[in-house]
Design a protein that fits this description.
Strand content: 15-25%
Helix content: 25-40%
Oligomer: single chain
CATH architecture of the largest domain: Alpha-Beta Barrel
CATH superfamily of the largest domain: Alanine racemase
Structural class: alpha/beta
Shape: elongated
CATH topology of the largest domain: TIM Barrel
CATH class of the largest domain: Alpha Beta
Number of strands: 19
Distance between the termini: 25 Å
Radius of gyration: 23 Å
């Protein structure tokens, strides 16, 4: 029989989270962000749960082709724009929207021969300092684009660096507004954290398009300040396996490579079929939460390539074959949000989702 590990993609939860984003910004349209293969969920598996969105935003042309192949005829946005002038040919053929964040991309558009004018997102660098025109250069970029017959519309956009933290968005929003206030065109500034934390109270911040990413995939963008229950989000990915062995330890017995855990007394541990080769974080320490038959338990010892070891004290009835939930939905309505093991391992839910290994069988439910 196959190794008893699998990942489940919950399309009903994806649909719920899209509606939750829309409720936070009821007068804005919603991009479903599906870069990184829909945050590791798989574009094709996630698609059914995301069709209530108004458009799909992604990273590269191959992902755009996959969305079109699924039958989507609405807007599709390249978040980082074109990487080469030749990319504009496919943008024209597939009717893709694309971001412009540097002068060369405007030059490419000016030289591009197309019968279908393009929809462009003009990005301002308001403080993230990754992509975008400096505020002082933004208006001139807009003027260049607005004068091109190759451009049908320009959406004004920026990206917040601290919407999930105490610093918030005030400084970047003021920078954006000072430059873009009197420029015509739709606006798009809200990522997941801004959508949840600021958009409900600020219509101007909501703009015309929101760009929810991580919240759609069942992770709280500002964890641990808030968890998914606080934001009314649902877990969209479950990683589950089974116990394949148990061991009886005595005081002084150690567990796993490096003997990083030593029993303080008699205890029973379970061995589950999941390790860092499956995408589970190797740095998850003793104490990282898991569910065993829906009961909260903890890892002990070091995560190895194919196995983790679990303290079975809270679930004495556990046996070989008991279900182990590494994150997501467990038995009997139990849930372990992906943010919890990610936080314990010193990372974020994004990384665990995107790091799910190809060897893990994955299927969609819902």
């Amino acid at each position: 029989m196959p190794r008893p590990i699998e990942a489940l993609i919950h399309t009903d939860a994806l649909a719920h989270n899209i509606l939750r984003a829309r409720a936070a910004a009821p007068d804005a349209k919603v991009w479903a962000i599906v870069k990184a293969d829909a945050y590791g969920h798989g574009i094709e598996r996630a698609y059914a749960g995301l069709q209530a969105a108004d458009g799909f935003a992604l990273l590269d042309l191959a992902e755009a082709e996959r969305i079109r192949a699924l039958g989507w005829r609405g807007p599709v946005l390249l978040l980082e724009g074109c990487f080469d002038a030749r990319d504009l040919e496919l943008c024209s053929r597939l009717d893709l929207w694309h971001t412009v964040h540097r002068e060369a991309q405007i030059d490419w558009l000016a030289a591009h021969k197309t019968q279908r004018p393009h929809h462009v997102f003009l990005k301002m660098n308001s403080g993230m300092n990754r992509l975008g025109f400096a505020p002082a250069a933004y208006r001139s970029a807009w003027l260049r684009l607005s004068g091109l017959t190759q451009v049908e519309s320009i959406v004004l956009s920026t990206h917040f660096s601290d919407a999930d933290a105490a610093r918030g968005i005030a400084e970047q929003w003021a920078c954006f507004e000072a430059v873009a206030r009197d420029l015509p065109g739709e606006r798009s500034v809200c990522n997941s954290a801004a959508t949840l934390r600021f958009a409900p109270a600020e219509a101007t911040v909501r703009g015309d398009w929101i760009r929810p990413g991580i919240m759609v995939y069942g992770s709280a963008p500002d964890y641990p300040a808030h968890d998914i229950a606080a934001w009314d989000l649902q877990a969209t990915m479950t990683l589950r396996t089974e116990l394949i062995a148990t061991q009886e330890l005595q005081r002084g017995d150690s567990v796993g490579y490096g003997s990083t855990f030593t029993a303080e007394g008699a205890m029973r541990i379970g061995v589950a079929a999941c390790g860092y080769a499956d995408g589970y974080p190797r740095l998850a320490p003793t104490g990282t939460p898991v569910l065993v038959d829906g009961v909260r338990a903890r890892l002990v010892g070091r995560v190895s390539m194919d196995m983790v070891t679990i303290d079975l004290t809270p679930v004495p009835q556990a046996a070989i074959g008991s279900e182990v939930t590494l994150w997501g939905r467990g038995p009997n309505g139990s849930v372990l949000a992906i943010d919890e093991p990610a936080h314990a391992a010193g990372t974020v839910g994004y990384e665990l989702m995107c790091g799910l290994a190809p060897r893990v069988p994955t299927r969609a439910l819902g």
